[in-house]
């Protein structure tokens, strides 16, 4: 339990990565816990659209700004500018292509100078070495409740890798840890 | 200068029409003719006539609705044009201009030549104009409206009808009932009886026309121009130098803006190079500003992208869009203020990169259709709004409906979505949403939808809907 609370909410002034089917809800849960303004950067060609009537239980949609960029290079430029400005507490960018080490490091430096948290939503297996932590989030089926999910930390620069089963509590806007998943080989993989 | 048919000629200039033409204005529940062209007048129509009557008289009459506000604006344009003759130009009613040409007539070769020039230029632009020139404003008005000649002399003024004295309709009729038809008739009367019978108005107008009572012309005030420029003796090319130049210009511009309680929204910096080519840097701000220290760093990125060539020798900075910005009280909670400013600056910076309209925010909208439950609007031109409510859970992401195979009104037990096999574990629903019939939306042609929240055994939580009127299943969102 305590290990989870040291990792989440994610460490400030760093960039992190999240992948998996539940990456978006991870981002919103984080935004809700951090408070303050959020900049969400997405490429304009994407058909999927975050829905404020859905995520208003996680965070107040007034605090969210949306930047529609033409491609990933432009998106990274905007991300760096946002992190450096220090005007937002969290920057979320949806990435479709893997980042080079230089680009990842630049984001990291920008986050350090601006004191903001960066979160990249990445496709599975396209992580970047410069990230502080990388998470994989997926939902688990539970016949009684539809907020059960598994959060695994699959890269951690300063700590061990772990996994938790968590629930989202909409009333208190908090993530509650149900149980720690055993560190057995194979058990951390969620059924697909 | 009197433009007897200004409104219709303004419209006809933009869209010429052959044959009778009239502008109509809705007055006390009827369409009445507001202004008409000579052909329509020839057909026996007159101002104030009902449009349906006019159509009965003249079957090929073409009409358009009038726009008095646009006419007034156009008269201001004409007033600005008229400053080519003299600097002292005022408005006279809704359809006239008054010019004080004393001292400038000789520049056009005398009064007669100047009037000819005016007539010629206005005729070329498609305006009928009646000119009157006299020693006083009242006499000039009388000559323009009633005089057949142009230049006034006292004897010609005396021969004009009493209406030429700018009197109200009632007074004119009263004067005419007494047999006073011309100005000379009034001049012959003792003034005391005149003012006792008709009030001081008649005497005042008479004195104004004759020049015994002064009457001033108030020229239109010039709108303030928010632009500054700087010419350099030697060309510059370094970014730092251009920034320093911009800083000086910004200081002057911001002082001007501050004096007028205005804030710049769009700034245009024109850099003229030695080879006469010029480069422009446009800065769109996320909020109106008149604070030079805040605007300057925002210019940095634009100026870095400029190709200086052989050097820049003139800088010009214009605030192309300004908005009112009154002085704000420094609030007690100083922290939130500076934070808002920081965010606005960030929006501006990002706007420079990707266009200001691409930085957006969500605003709540009053609709039960999921994809219309919110509006996306540019963050720079909207204020954040609260009041987000959803009575039922909605997915975090929405996408265009993707068809899946399924039969019957219950969610399919197994289905394939995005090449993944899914097994329904739990389904909550249905929630019926009917299309908004008052808006035609192609996506909702299939009629009502029954929405289901489906938790699959694989873990994905999807938002499915069924269209009973055209049986089919779709996935529209994910509660991920």
What would you say the CATH architecture of the domain at 9-134 in chain A is? 3-Layer(aba) Sandwich
Secondary structure: number of strands of chain A: 10
Strand content of chain A: 25-35%
User: What class, by secondary structure content of chain A?
Assistant: alpha/beta
Mean pLDDT level of chain B: 86
Rounded to the nearest angstrom, the distance between the terminal CA atoms of chain A is 26 Å
CATH architecture of the largest domain in chain B: 3-Layer(aba) Sandwich
Report the CATH superfamily of the domain at 9-134 in chain A: P-loop containing nucleotide triphosphate hydrolases
CATH fold assignment of the largest domain in chain B: MutS, DNA mismatch repair protein, domain I
Counted by DSSP, the helix tally of chain B is 14
Quantity of strands of chain B, as a count: 17
Low-confidence stretches of chain B: none
Largest interface comes to: A-B, 51 and 50 residues
Average pLDDT of chain A: 88
Oligomer: heterodimer
Radius of gyration of chain B: 35 Å
What is the topology, as strand order, of the major beta sheet of chain A?
4-2-5-6-1-7-8-9-10
Q: What is the total domain count of chain B? A: 4
């Amino acid at each position: 339990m305590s290990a989870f609370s040291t990792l989440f909410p994610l460490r400030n002034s760093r960039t992190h990565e999240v992948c998996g089917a539940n990456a978006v809800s991870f981002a919103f849960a984080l935004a809700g816990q951090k408070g303050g303004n959020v900049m969400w950067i997405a490429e304009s060609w994407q058909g999927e659209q975050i829905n404020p009537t859905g995520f208003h239980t996680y965070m107040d949609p007034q605090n969210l700004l949306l930047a529609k960029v033409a491609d990933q290079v432009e998106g990274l430029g905007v991300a760096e500018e946002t992190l450096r400005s220090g005007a937002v507490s969290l920057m979320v960018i949806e990435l479709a292509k893997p980042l080079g080490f230089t680009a990842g490091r630049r984001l990291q430096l920008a986050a350090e100078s601006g004191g903001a948290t960066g979160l990249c939503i990445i496709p599975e297996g396209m992580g970047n070495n410069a990230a502080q932590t990388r998470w994989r989030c997926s939902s688990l089926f539970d016949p009684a409740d539809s907020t059960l999910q598994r959060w695994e930390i699959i890269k951690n620069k300063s700590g061990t890798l772990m996994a938790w089963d968590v629930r989202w509590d909409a009333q208190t806007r908090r993530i509650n840890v149900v149980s720690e998943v055993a560190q057995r080989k194979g058990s951390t993989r969620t059924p697909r | 200068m009197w433009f007897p048919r200004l409104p219709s000629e303004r419209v006809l200039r933009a869209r010429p029409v052959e044959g009778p033409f009239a502008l109509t204005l809705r007055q006390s529940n009827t369409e009445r003719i507001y202004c008409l062209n000579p052909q329509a007048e020839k057909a026996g129509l007159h101002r104030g006539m009902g449009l349906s009557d006019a159509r009965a008289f003249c079957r090929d009459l073409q009409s358009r609705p009038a726009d008095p506000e646009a006419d007034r604006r156009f008269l201001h344009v004409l007033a600005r044009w008229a400053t080519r003759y003299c600097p002292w130009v005022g408005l006279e009613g809704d359809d006239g201009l008054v010019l004080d040409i004393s001292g400038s007539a000789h520049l056009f070769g005398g009064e007669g030549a100047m009037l000819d020039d005016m007539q010629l230029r206005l005729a070329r632009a498609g305006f009928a104009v009646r000119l009157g020139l006299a020693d006083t404003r009242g006499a000039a008005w009388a000559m323009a409206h009633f005089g057949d000649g142009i230049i006034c002399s006292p004897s010609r003024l005396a021969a004009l009808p009493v209406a030429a004295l700018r009197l109200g309709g009632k007074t004119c009729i009263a004067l005419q009932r007494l047999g006073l038809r011309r100005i000379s008739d009034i001049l012959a009367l003792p003034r005391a009886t005149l003012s006792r019978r008709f009030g001081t108005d008649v005497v005042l107008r008479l004195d104004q026309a004759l020049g015994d009572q002064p009457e001033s012309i108030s020229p239109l005030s010039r709108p303030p121009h928010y632009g500054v420029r700087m010419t350099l003796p030697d060309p510059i090319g370094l970014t730092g130098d251009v920034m320093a130049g911009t800083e000086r210009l910004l200081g002057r511009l911001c002082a001007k803006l501050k004096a007028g309680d205005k804030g710049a929204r769009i700034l245009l910096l024109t850099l003229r190079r030695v080879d006469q080519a010029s480069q422009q840097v446009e800065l769109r701000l996320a909020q109106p500003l008149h604070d030079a220290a805040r605007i300057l760093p925002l210019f940095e990125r634009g100026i870095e992208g400029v190709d200086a060539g052989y050097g820049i020798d003139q800088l010009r900075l214009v605030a192309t869009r300004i908005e009112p910005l009154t002085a704000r009280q420094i609030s007690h909670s100083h922290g939130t203020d500076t934070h808002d400013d920081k965010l606005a600056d960030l929006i501006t910076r990002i706007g420079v990169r990707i266009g200001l309209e691409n930085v957006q925010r969500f605003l709540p909208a009053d609709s039960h259709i999921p994809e219309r439950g919110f509006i996306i609007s540019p963050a720079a031109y909207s204020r954040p709004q609260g009041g987000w409510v959803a009575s039922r859970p909605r997915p975090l992401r929405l996408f265009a409906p993707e068809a899946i195979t399924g039969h019957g009104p219950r969610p399919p037990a197994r289905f394939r979505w995005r090449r993944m096999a899914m097994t329904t574990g739990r389904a909550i629903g249905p929630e019926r949403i009917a299309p908004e019939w008052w808006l035609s939306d192609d996506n909702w042609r299939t009629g009502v939808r029954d929405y289901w929240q489906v938790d699959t055994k694989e873990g994905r939580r999807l938002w499915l809907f069924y269209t009973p009127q055209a049986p089919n299943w779709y996935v529209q969102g994910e509660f991920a």
